[in-house]
Amino acid sequence: MSENQLGTSSIVEKHVDQMELIATTFIVPALIVLLAAAGVTKGFDVLGLHLDTDNAYGVVVAIFDCLLLLFTITGWKAGDFLKMCPESEAGRAIAAVLTHKWFLNPFCYSGRGVASAVTCGVGSGLLIMIWCIGLCSLQLLSTVTHGRGGVEKVLFALYLIFGVTSALGIVRLFRLILQRIDRAEDTSDEFVPLTVSDIKLNIVLKSAFAVTAIIVGFWLYYSFAHIGI
Fold it and tell me: Which of the two ends of the chain, N or C, has the fewest CB atoms closer than 10 A to its terminal CB?
């Protein structure tokens, strides 16, 4: 294989590594902001920055937006590199994504059966709950900070948009994986570790966990908004 080949399993895996890092980086400040706003503390630290609670909203939502945008870009690039993988690398790239060490890996697959599918589906729901925690933290912070101007409203809109694009990036990469698997079923030129039928239950339960997380997350958000916490 050429040393400067773009479509390799290691390159795809490195981008999933970056998605893991960004998601982990996001959850820590989201929880810090949530707890700080709920406790109405005078200040808190986010990614090395000390912020005053009463005027931190704009900076916090901008940080969240940047992390979500980076997650979207990284997921999209992972899909692009998977598309570039030649037949000899496709199976290894897919295996690297499906078995990645990321605890919340939304692409996780560990075998047939309901128990395995449930275990692998949890990550999808928890990833969405992380985004919802960020949403709830912004809602709480908005109640203890000074008035939000037009810029802050645009930044909040971008938080919603980038949340959707992050999910679309995950869906796109998973779709590309299924396309490579499906192509392998129709030809003997490409080897992948499983078939589309093997992963159907896995997809159904991932979707069920994701929908449940969305419902619970928005219920929490509107509960905070209406009771004025």
Answer: N
